[in-house]
Design brief:
Pfam families: Aldo_ket_red. InterPro entries: AKR_Detox_Biosynth, NAD(P)_OxRdtase_dom_sf, NADP_OxRdtase_dom. This is Aldo/keto reductase. It comes from Brachybacterium hainanense. The radius of gyration is 19 Å and the shape is globular. It has an 8-stranded parallel β-barrel, surrounded by 5 helices. It is 40% helix and 11% strand. By secondary structure, the chain is α/β, with parallel strands linked by helices. α5 crosses α6, α8 packs antiparallel against α11 and α9 crosses α10. α3 links the parallel β2 and β3. The longest helix has 17 residues. The chain has one domain: TIM Barrel (Alpha-Beta Barrel).
């Protein structure tokens, strides 16, 4: 059984980037997935993020599990690798049958959570996961029931930590309070969409169907106050910061974005980096851990270089002033 990790192990400042495995086994073939994983570990990467539902929308059978199965085969082919990486997976968003999402999904009831974790452990070929995310909020289930299910999994050693993805701050607070009353581990991490640009108030970026999925000032304040980790998905907007063939989502089209993009371009030029690399460095400087869903080794290398870029006080001040 995998032992619980120490805070210094899971918060290593040398490797702030998280490797997102969402498309492994679907859009990204197994050979390329293995190459990206190998390179990530070679460069000191630790955290690999997946989910039981990845990636049902690209899967021939309309169900998730491909990503976890690829990771399981990679771990099996690399003896000793399990001790070198930290694995997070998610529960709650798997379709009940092909085409049923989002109306009919597994949810976060006690039985669903236990079944989700059992399936993930089998596909990954591991005895425990280092962090289990509640993938998206389930208003049909009392959050207390979900917390009690997680407590049972923690007690048996199958889950070390728990995080909340796409949950409003008040639900997280309620979950943490109930965990405290049970004497079990509380939610200690949030995973949300975050980048340098900010969408227009009330607007949702394309593809984000979660009402509480974009990092808000309230969620950020809550995380700071209670010292929760914050992980950011879609940090690079699918490459839109640097690729002319990837236009920036219209929800970011407002005067504030023009100021931010101008500052970003100036800092990128001054540091000899791409705008995307500066975005990653800026997020890290804010204490936010970006998740990269890169599909090639060169993309991974560029992202790791960006996450490791130390911006000067002057450059941070310029970026913050534009923000």
């Amino acid at each position: 059984m995998t032992a619980s990790r120490s805070p210094s192990d899971r918060l290593s400042p040398a490797t702030p980037l998280i490797l997102g495995a969402m498309s492994f086994g679907t859009r990204i073939d197994e050979e390329t997935s293995f190459a990206v994983l190998d390179r990530f570990v070679e460069r000191g990467g630790r955290w690999i993020d997946t989910a039981d539902c990845y990636a049902f929308w690209d899967s021939p059978d309309g169900m998730g599990g491909a990503s976890e199965r690829v990771l399981g085969r990679w771990l099996a082919a690399r003896p000793g690798m399990r001790s070198r990486v930290l694995i997070s997976t998610k529960a709650g968003a798997q379709p009940l049958w092909a085409g049923s999402w989002p109306a009919q999904r597994s949810g976060l009831g006690r039985r669903a959570v236990h079944e989700a974790v059992a399936g993930s452990l089998e596909r990954l070929g591991v005895e425990s996961v280092d962090l289990l995310w509640l993938h998206q909020e389930d208003r049909a289930t009392p959050i207390e029931e979900t917390v009690e299910a997680i407590a049972e999994l923690v007690a048996t050693g199958r889950v070390a930590r728990v995080g909340a993805s796409n949950h409003p701050a008040w639900r997280v607070e309620r979950a943490r309070a109930h965990a405290a009353s049970l004497g079990t581990v509380p939610i200690d991490a949030l995973q949300l969409s975050a980048t340098y640009l900010r969408p227009r108030p009330g607007a949702q970026p394309a593809g984000n169907v979660h009402p509480a999925g974009v990092l808000s000032d309230e969620q950020r304040d809550y995380a700071r106050t209670h010292r929760l980790e914050v992980w950011a998905y879609t940090a690079l907007l699918g490459g839109a910061y640097d690729r002319e063939d990837r236009p920036i989502d219209p929800v970011f089209e407002h005067p504030g974005s023009q100021r931010r993009l101008a500052a970003l371009t100036e800092v990128a030029g001054a540091t000899g980096s791409s705008r995307g690399q500066v975005v990653l460095a800026w997020l890290v400087a804010q204490g936010i851990r970006p998740i990269l869903g890169g599909s090639t080794v060169p993309q991974l290398d560029a992202a790791l270089d960006g996450a490791g870029l130390e911006l000067s006080a002057e450059h941070l001040a310029k970026l913050d002033a534009a923000a």
